[in-house]
């Protein structure tokens, strides 16, 4: 991949990562609840999920989804249902406290990783987006596999940095969030549910 093309792709990846979505919201929420260090498990799970979607897009699953409305509809409803469930769970969670809370202790690192992974893979629109986004930067005269690996690694790195900064920011303003009590949980939970409802209803 030529350097000038990669720089353009890097800027586009940064813009995409800064766009509000389920995983950035999850990083913000977990950063406030568990701290930036434990949220790394959530972030890494999301990065794995995004990398898997990029791989699927690269190997042609996007074309399959575009020609199979039924399959796309099923994926939309499954992904939307998971995000709604995540939103409801967050809505019902106890208010954030400055001291270590029981929820933080009970949530395993594997559980945090799984939430990040499923949140990333729950949105089939991301798969379709990658299918249209990635080819714009492909040079057919160069090795495709190497270009795909570079693009996947670039986006994963950018997404990791953005989500980690969100988690650190959330933990720093934790006292302010704590004063909001249950309102913070309900706000984030409501946004998750809205995203989940919008997924299957989107055209």
From TrEMBL:
One of the Pfam families matching this protein, by short name: LysE
InterPro entries (alphabetical): LeuE-type
GO molecular-function terms, A-Z: homoserine transmembrane transporter activity
Cellular component aspect of the GO annotation: plasma membrane
Record field: transmembrane: 6-28, 40-63, 69-91, 112-133, 145-171, 183-202
UniProt topology in membrane: Multi-pass membrane protein
Primary localization: membrane
Cellular localisation: Cell membrane
Source domain of life: Bacteria
Family the entry assigns: Belongs to the Rht family.
Protein name: Lysine exporter protein (LYSE/YGGA)
Organism of derivation: Pseudomonas putida (strain W619)
Phylogenetic classification of the source organism: Bacteria, Pseudomonadati, Pseudomonadota, Gammaproteobacteria, Pseudomonadales
């Amino acid at each position: 991949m030529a350097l000038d093309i990669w720089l353009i792709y890097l800027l586009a990846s940064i813009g995409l990562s800064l766009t509000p979505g389920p995983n950035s919201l999850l990083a913000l929420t977990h950063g406030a609840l568990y701290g930036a260090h434990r949220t790394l498990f959530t972030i890494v799970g999301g990065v794995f999920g995004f990398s898997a979607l990029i791989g699927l897009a690269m190997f042609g699953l996007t074309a399959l989804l575009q020609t199979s409305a039924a399959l796309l509809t099923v994926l939309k409803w499954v992904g939307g249902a998971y995000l709604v469930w995540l939103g409801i769970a967050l809505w019902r969670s106890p208010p954030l406290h400055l001291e270590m809370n029981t929820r933080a202790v009970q949530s395993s690192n594997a559980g945090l990783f799984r939430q990040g992974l499923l949140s990333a893979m729950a949105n089939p629109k991301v798969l379709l987006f990658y299918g249209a986004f990635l080819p714009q930067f492909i040079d057919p005269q160069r090795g495709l596999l190497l270009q795909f690996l570079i693009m996947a690694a670039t986006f994963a790195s950018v997404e990791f940095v953005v989500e980690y900064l969100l988690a650190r920011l959330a933990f720093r303003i934790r006292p302010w969030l704590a004063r909001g009590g249950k309102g913070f949980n309900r706000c984030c939970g409501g946004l998750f549910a809205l995203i989940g409802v919008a997924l299957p209803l989107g055209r």
